[in-house]
Amino acid sequence: VHPNVSQGCQGGCATCSDYNGCLSCKPRLFFVLERIGMKQIGVCLSSCPSGYYGTRYPDINKCAKCKADCDTCFTKNFCTKCKSGFYLYSGKCLEKCPDGLEANNHTMECTSIVHCEASEWSPWSPCTKKGKTCGFKRGNEVRVREIVQHPSAKGNPCPATSESRKCIVQRKRCQKEGKGKKNREEKRKKSNKDESKETRQESKGRAARRQNREQRENNNKTQPKKRKASNKEQDLAPVDTAH
């Protein structure tokens, strides 16, 4: 250390020298040596850089180097991230993962092997043949299931998700589309015919009521004339003067 030690330092240094940089740091800061060519310069940082881990002591806080295969570490013997080409497992950086584990190239970690998992089979479908459920005796029925867990690279592959088998049904004829259409047309005609019949009956009823009403009105008009004629005949009748 250069003997020229200064107390009025910059950048978080408590003491420093023109040749070696920081010699000690202010409280809570970490002291680390940075190499510049053949020379090492002391600096004070709030956290340790990549490849270093921090240790706190009563007199000074220091940044120490991680192992050569560690990119970042918690302590010297516990890595949190490995350098390229290594896989992290339990704080260590390995070139090859242990048995029962597989290398995850995305996270660069050794992870557990995941096997495929499928759901339970669905019930068997109705017996069909060429998309129909009638007009045949022998057909096929199917059932399906879903994949609920996809496997990892070394995991067991997924099984088939569909299954079919032969089936036998009681033979029955398919209803023809034309026949069904004819039946619907006949029902429609019958319905229209019934409606027409009801309409005619209602019309006849209205005509009969109108005729009865007109007849009653005519009768009411002729009755007063008859009474007048009867009175006139009484006036023209001979008077008995025998008395």
Automatic annotation (TrEMBL):
UniProt superkingdom: Eukaryota
Name recorded for this polypeptide: R-spondin-3
InterPro entries recorded: Furin_repeat (IPR006212), Growth_fac_rcpt_cys_sf (IPR009030), R-spondin (IPR051514), Rspo_Fu-CRD_dom (IPR043601), TSP1_rpt (IPR000884), TSP1_rpt_sf (IPR036383), TSP1_spondin_dom (IPR044004)
Region (Disordered): 169-243
Record key words, sorted: Disulfide bond, Glycoprotein, Heparin-binding, Repeat, Secreted, Sensory transduction, Signal, Wnt signaling pathway
Transmembrane intervals: none
Primary role: Activator of the canonical Wnt signaling pathway by acting as a ligand for LGR4-6 receptors, which acts as a key regulator of angiogenesis. Upon binding to LGR4-6 (LGR4, LGR5 or LGR6), LGR4-6 associate with phosphorylated LRP6 and frizzled receptors that are activated by extracellular Wnt receptors, triggering the canonical Wnt signaling pathway to increase expression of target genes. Also regulates the canonical Wnt/beta-catenin-dependent pathway and non-canonical Wnt signaling by acting as an inhibitor of ZNRF3, an important regulator of the Wnt signaling pathway.
Keyword Disulfide bond: yes
Subunit structure: Interacts with the extracellular domain of FZD8 and LRP6. It however does not form a ternary complex with FZD8 and LRP6. Interacts with WNT1. Binds heparin. Interacts with LGR4, LGR5 and LGR6.
Gene Ontology BP annotations: positive regulation of non-canonical Wnt signaling pathway; Wnt signaling pathway
Residues annotated as domain Spondin-like TSP1: 116-170
A GO CC annotation given for this chain: extracellular region
Taxonomic classification: Eukaryota, Metazoa, Chordata, Craniata, Vertebrata
Protein's gene: Rspo3
